[in-house]
Amino acid sequence: MAVNLAAYLSSFGKKILLIDLDPQANASSGLGVENRTQGIYEAMSRQIPLSSSIMPVRNNFWLIPANENLAGADIEMVDLPQREFVLAKTIDDVLAEKSGENFDYVFIDTPPSLSLLTINSLVAANQVLIPVQAEYYALEGLGQLLETIKLVKENLKPNLGVLGAVITMYDGRGRLSEEVWEELYRHFPHYIFRTIIPRSIRLAEAPSYGQTILEYAPKSKGANAYKRLAQEFLVNNKFKN
What we know:
Layout: H1 2-11, E1 16-20, H2 26-30, H3 40-44, E2 55-58, E3 61-64, H4 73-77, H5 86-97, E4 105-109, H6 116-124, E5 127-133, H7 136-155, E6 161-168, H8 175-187, H9 201-205, H10 213-216, H11 221-240
Parallel strand pairs: 1-3, 1-4, 5-6
Antiparallel strand pairs: 2-3
Helix pairs in contact: 1-11, 5-6
């Protein structure tokens, strides 16, 4: 979700930095980035300055990629002092360096599972945008994530906010997606974006070509949904700040 949302925001003239914090590096490969020898792992481990890992990938769109080295980061950080703040301090460094780019938004694409990397992303973030797949297992995962966010707010980052939830992979032909939507409205205490991202073959295909949905199928239902999501994001963000 982060890649396509960032792509549309950048097409609206916003300067976007996307940090790929997922060891699977889906955001990096989905943008067609093959040379990932200098990425977020190398910056967090102080092998290179963060500014050296920032690469332009599209107009108004920059990426800090992930690579396979990130897979061992959780274990390597376990014994570090203030291990939950490694990413936050790394990002603060690049802001202090004044790298030459004043980004409007910095997105952190997190691992799909809860881990020390996920905790680092929450501590480094100001707000959390939660994608929720339209299936019941995703609702169970949402409960765990909200509990983690609560613990982070109580113990590490008191001003961490929840921007809202976005329903993804929605299939309006069946009852399951509709029931998940209703259940989410009943139990999710935060803002739910009105834009729904549909289940789409074009959305599934685009990353294999190293393209965003804006490039791969700009007139598809998935592309139109992400365009609306970006517009809603900008409006909603004004209310949050």
